[in-house]
Amino acid sequence: MIAAGFGFRSGATIQSLLDALACANPEGRAFQRIATADDKAEAEVFQMLSTHLRIAAQGIDQATLTAQTTMTQSIAALAARGIGSLAEAAALAAAGPGARLLAARVISHDGMATCALALGTAL
């Protein structure tokens, strides 16, 4: 099972999120989950992504996000959330216990969104 985790700024568009996803997934792997922080999961842009992809949006609580070990360390994510990468942490959490990142997070071309994919055994 593959999960796509996202981080994004308040001004991000659906194109920002789709671009980040395309950059993170150049092989076009099938994924079953999209996730971000609880407070971002209800954002209109993330709900639009959910509708576009026909995959339910999953919000991950702060305690679960901070329990994840990320590959990268974003100064902004550390300051805002106390985690190295929201995208990486969300992907790992959504993919379940023992998940591993397929690669480090990538940033959309407009700099407004990040995405990472994780492989796990969650159902």
Describe this structure in words.
With 123 residues, the protein is of the alpha/beta class. The protein has a single domain, classed as Nucleotidyltransferase, domain 5 (2-Layer Sandwich). Helices cover 38% and strands 22% of the residues. Strands 1, 2, 3, 4, 5 and 6 form a 6-stranded mixed β-sheet that branches. The longest helix is centred in the first third of the chain and has 11 residues, at 14-24. The N and C termini lie close together (7 Å). 46% of the residues are buried.
Write the layout of secondary structure elements.
Elements: E1 2-8, H1 14-24, E2 33-37, H2 38-41, H3 44-53, E3 57-60, H4 62-66, H5 75-81, H6 86-95, E4 100-101, E5 106-107, E6 113-119
Number of beta strands: 6
For this structure, the CATH topology is Nucleotidyltransferase, domain 5
The CATH class is Alpha Beta
Q: Radius of gyration in whole Å, from Cα?
A: 12 Å
Helix fraction bin: 25-40%
CATH architecture: 2-Layer Sandwich
